[in-house]
């Protein structure tokens, strides 16, 4: 590097530039070069402002002072902006392999790779494949791995008939590698995937050739183990349907059709971002002003949310490459949050909300694209004893749609399948494939809107607990509506499981009948009186000024015990029961699952009014630097103080807290000690409410994200997006025209308002 630098400098020497001047310039340049220290990030694979890499035209230039990478388009601009003149120029040329394409004409349908349009090659082992006469015969169903008893992702070796599980995926799901290990031990090269065999062919893999292949003698090879191709039917599972396996998909590329490389279980991120990239609010915010973002970027743009978001969006909309890789953005969105900073699989819905939260943080002023999803929910609670009502509103971004399994249209088929499963289990016979529950979308929507009975409601009208009815409606309709199908639930043993359901999600949706009406004429409201505090048995109830001992309900010991038996800390269990008002194990468990990451999750329960309660930290003990940081984001000092007090002075948790309590903060009174001396209470303008858009409740479907696997913690995500009236499937880096979009198997659905 130094020799190259010296040569470049000396090449400018001449009569008007004597050697001394050259040496002076050289020493000046060399003085800016430093050696990376432990902890320094050296960006030698990706440009900070584009997706240029060492393999791109012009290569990559790494600044020898900041170690940031720049493509040829941005290195000169960085030099002008910073004065830096020493860069390491990295170029890399990929070696290409030239292969001859052979098209094999078979007596059955030509087998084609689903994604890249490549015709599978005839295996070199097919014609002379050795098959052992070991007497093994394979049944038409009920297969399981001979080593670990897995019943999915099974492959039969075509030499000895062994049925073994497939490869393990990044996240530990899939198989246990037993089919691969068998090849490594025996050298038997070909295997067929059970469940894909039809009269037209099957999926055959060659371990030796490390590729999917054709086997022109497949009928003969299968017959050796008692399998008649002509009588076999393909077992179509969730993975095959969602990824549209079995159809020839036409690859697409260009602006808006750029794939995103999987960086190790980053499919949840890729799917969510591909959908967001199609929404005009995000395009306007992040695509139109890349030059301004470059000029205003901080010294390390790789750690700046705005810069990296603009970088991704700009190149996904305008880049002609088929694939981009965004290591920096993935690292940035996961910074400080363990659940998004690892290579483990995540819930796409949780990531969407996390990303919206980040956008909210970075858009306190100016255009906020997350407003496209924001809407108001009205909850009306009617005390059945007094018939008086209470109205509250909250902000939300996603509609969570329940799945009433007891209203499946194929209930008889499901019950018969369960009966056969129990019989097979008792007899030791292999189980048959279970049918998928068919749930009407209208039933799910009705379950969302039907009145809910509250059996333990404290009524301020009767000053006692009674029964109430809660009705939830839309107080506003967003420009873009996100619907989550609540497929993931807990079994009786509290083990997470996924519901295998098919829902006839419509292309158009009219929610006008679900608009909130507000207080009705003649309707009386419940008095604004707080309920008595909920006390625990071990807390002494001290007399107040009237020296009266308050009687209050105690914690449900049985619910606390059930939670403790599941392995949760005692204090966390007590808080779960307290904050859910003794309403049962389901509500308490949901509270636990939603607060496990709280810094005070295991801290002792402290009741309101206690001097050591959270939120009573003296102002003097609040870290001033934390206050300054939150205030710099556009919040008042009082709001920052409240957030820090609520989270034990943990900055990152305080920022999350403040964005999840925007409604409360915008309407909160000025705290004591921070009240302005000027102006009266009466002269103050009422605080503004959350900014939401509203319009008609009619929508059309434009995208959906689907999940494959048994849990959000494993499996794979893909998304389908409608572009110019054509559905397109985005499967990480693979982008193709969709032939059969599986709209009934989605997890997150995205609708946009229909403007009349």
TrEMBL record:
This protein's GO CC annotations: cytosol; nucleus
InterPro entries: Papain-like_cys_pep_sf, Peptidase_C19, Peptidase_C19_UCH, UBA, UBA-like_sf, Ubiquitinyl_hydrolase, UBP13_Znf-UBP_var, USP
Pfam families, per the entry: UBA (PF00627), UCH (PF00443), zf-UBP (PF02148), zf-UBP_var (PF17807)
Domain UBP-type span(s) in chain numbering: 121-229
Highest rank taxon of the organism: Eukaryota
CDD domains in the record: Peptidase_C19B, UBA1_UBP5_like, UBA2_UBP5
Active-site residues, as the UniProt record annotates them: 267 (nucleophile), 716 (proton acceptor)
UniProt-listed Enzyme Commission number(s): 3.4.19.12
Compositionally biased residues, Polar residues: 609-620
Residues annotated as domain UBA: 554-595, 621-661
Reaction(s) catalysed by this chain's protein: Thiol-dependent hydrolysis of ester, thioester, amide, peptide and isopeptide bonds formed by the C-terminal Gly of ubiquitin (a 76-residue protein attached to proteins as an intracellular targeting signal)
Residues annotated for Zn(2+) binding in this entry: 145, 148, 165, 178
Gene Ontology MF annotations: cysteine-type deubiquitinase activity; zinc ion binding
Matches recorded under PANTHER family: UBIQUITIN CARBOXYL-TERMINAL HYDROLASE, UBIQUITIN CARBOXYL-TERMINAL HYDROLASE 5
Record protein name field: Ubiquitin carboxyl-terminal hydrolase
């Amino acid at each position: 590097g130094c020799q190259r630098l010296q040569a470049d400098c000396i090449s400018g020497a001449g009569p008007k530039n004597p050697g001394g001047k050259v040496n002076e310039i050289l020493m000046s340049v060399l003085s800016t070069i430093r050696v990376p220290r432990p902890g320094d990030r050296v960006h030698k694979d990706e440009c900070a402002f584009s997706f240029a890499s060492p393999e791109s035209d012009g290569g990559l230039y790494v600044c020898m002072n900041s170690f940031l990478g720049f493509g040829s388009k941005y290195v000169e601009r960085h030099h002008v902006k910073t004065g830096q003149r020493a860069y390491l120029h990295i170029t890399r040329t990929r070696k290409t392999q030239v292969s001859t394409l052979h098209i094999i004409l078979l007596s059955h349908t030509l087998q084609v790779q689903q994604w890249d349009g490549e015709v599978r090659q005839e295996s070199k082992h097919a014609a002379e494949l050795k098959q052992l006469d070991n007497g093994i015969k394979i049944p038409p169903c009920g297969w399981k791995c001979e080593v670990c008893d897995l019943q999915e992702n099974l492959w039969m070796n075509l030499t000895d008939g062994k049925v073994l599980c497939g490869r393990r995926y990044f996240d530990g799901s899939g198989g246990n590698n037993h089919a691969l290990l068998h090849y490594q031990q025996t050298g038997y090269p070909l295997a067929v995937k059970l469940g894909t065999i039809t009269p037209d062919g099957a999926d055959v893999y060659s371990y030796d050739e490390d590729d999917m292949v054709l086997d022109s003698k497949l009928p003969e090879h299968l017959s050796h183990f008692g399998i008649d191709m002509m009588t076999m039917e393909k077992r179509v599972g969730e993975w095959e349907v969602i990824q549209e396996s079995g159809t020839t998909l036409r690859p697409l590329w260009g602006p808006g059709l750029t794939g995103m490389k999987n960086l190790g279980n980053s499919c949840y991120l890729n799917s969510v971002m591909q959908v967001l990239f199609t929404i005009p609010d995000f395009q306007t915010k992040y695509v139109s002003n890349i030059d301004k973002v470059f000029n205003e970027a901080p010294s390390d743009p790789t750690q700046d949310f705005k810069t990296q978001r603009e970088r991704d969006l700009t190149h996904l909309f305008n880049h002609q490459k088929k694939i981009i890789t965004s290591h920096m953005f993935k690292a940035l969105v996961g910074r400080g949050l363990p659940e998004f900073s690892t290579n483990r699989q995540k819930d796409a819905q949780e990531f969407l909300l996390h990303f919206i939260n980040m956008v909210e943080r970075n858009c306190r002023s100016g255009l906020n694209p997350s407003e496209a999803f924001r809407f108001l929910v009205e909850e009306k609670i009617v005390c059945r004893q007094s018939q008086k009502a209470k109205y509250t509103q909250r902000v939300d971004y996603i509609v969570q749609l329940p799945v009433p399994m007891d209203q499946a249209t194929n209930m008889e088929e499901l019950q018969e399948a369960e009966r056969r499963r129990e019989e097979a289990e008792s007899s030791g016979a292999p189980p048959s494939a279970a049918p998928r529950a068919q749930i009407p979308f209208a039933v799910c929507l009705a379950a969302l809107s039907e009145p809910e009975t509250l059996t333990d409601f404290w009524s301020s009208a009767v000053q006692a607990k009674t029964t109430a009815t809660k009705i939830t409606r839309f107080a506003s309709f967003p420009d873009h509506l996100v619907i989550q199908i609540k497929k993931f639930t807990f079994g009786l043993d509290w083990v997470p499981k996924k519901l295998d359901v098919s829902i006839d999600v419509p292309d158009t949706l009219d929610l006008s009948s679900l608009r909130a009406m507000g207080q009705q004429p003649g309707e009386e409201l419940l008095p604004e009186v707080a309920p008595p505090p909920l006390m625990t048995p071990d807390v002494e109830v001290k007399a107040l000024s009237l020296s009266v001992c308050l009687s209050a309900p105690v914690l449900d010991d049985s619910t606390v015990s059930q939670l403790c038996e599941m392995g949760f800390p005692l204090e966390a269990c007590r808080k779960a029961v307290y904050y859910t008002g003794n309403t049962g194990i389901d509500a308490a468990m949901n509270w636990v699952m939603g607060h496990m990451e709280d810094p005070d999750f295991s801290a002792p329960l402290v009741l309101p009014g206690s001097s050591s309660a959270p939120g009573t930290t003296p102002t003097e003990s609040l870290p001033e630097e934390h206050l300054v940081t939150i205030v710099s984001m556009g919040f008042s000092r009082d709001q920052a103080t409240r957030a820090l007090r609520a989270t034990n002075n943990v900055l990152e948790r305080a920022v999350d807290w403040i964005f999840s309590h925007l409604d409360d903060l915008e309407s909160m009174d000025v705290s004591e000690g921070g009240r302005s001396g000027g102006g009266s209470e009466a002269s103050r303008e009422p605080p503004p409410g959350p900014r939401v858009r509203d319009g008609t409740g009619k929508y059309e479907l434009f995208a959906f994200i689907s999940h494959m696997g048994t849990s959000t913690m494993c499996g794979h995500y893909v998304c389908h997006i409608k572009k110019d009236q054509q559905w397109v499937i985005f499967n990480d880096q693979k982008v193709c025209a969709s032939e059969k979009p599986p709209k009934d198997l989605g997890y997150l659905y995205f609708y946009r308002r229909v403007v009349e």
